Amino acid sequence: MKTKLVISCAIAIALSGSSLVAADQATARSPEARDGGVSKVAHIKGMDQAPVIETRVAPVYPRELREKGIQGLVTVEMLIDSTGRVVEANAVRATAPAFANQAVEAARQWTFKPAEAKGQKISTRVLVPFEFVMPQIAAWEADSR
């Protein structure tokens, strides 16, 4: 039986900087990570429980952009099915295609506790920002708080 109820909501996922250091030592994170790590979930009528992250995978900072000192932001729209799997992931905004590719690849590997409405697990769409920040700038931002 297909779930007919698909709810769109915006969710800003707070990702800790330490868990998102890629192999090349550049950092990818959500914008809220520097604001205390508070997740924000849009209120959707009828939804009893918003989706909750169970597994998150950090995107790899593209080498060519890291070498040029380029930073960026990607917003990924994910379709989470009623089992909590990401069945679609698409970049809806990106400062560079290479950032978009890496963010989408990482997003496809995430898993969630699915959203619920009236006690039933439902599919949902979420928007997740991925911020690509050079380590020197991330350190400067942390010091300036």
From TrEMBL:
Residue ranges annotated as coiled coil are: none
Q: Which residues cross the membrane?
A: none
The record's listing under Pfam families reads: TonB_C
Has keyword Cell inner membrane?
yes
Task: Give the signal peptide as a residue range, or say none if absent.
Answer: 1-22
Q: Name one GO cellular component term.
A: plasma membrane
What keywords tag this UniProt record?
A: Cell inner membrane, Cell membrane, Membrane, Protein transport, Signal, Transmembrane, Transmembrane helix, Transport
**Major localisation:** membrane
A GO BP annotation: transmembrane transport
- Report the membrane topology from the UniProt record: Single-pass membrane protein
Q: Where in the cell is it found?
A: Cell inner membrane
Annotated TonB C-terminal domain ranges read: 46-141
Q: Which family does it belong to?
A: Belongs to the TonB family.
User: What is this protein's record name?
Assistant: Energy transducer TonB
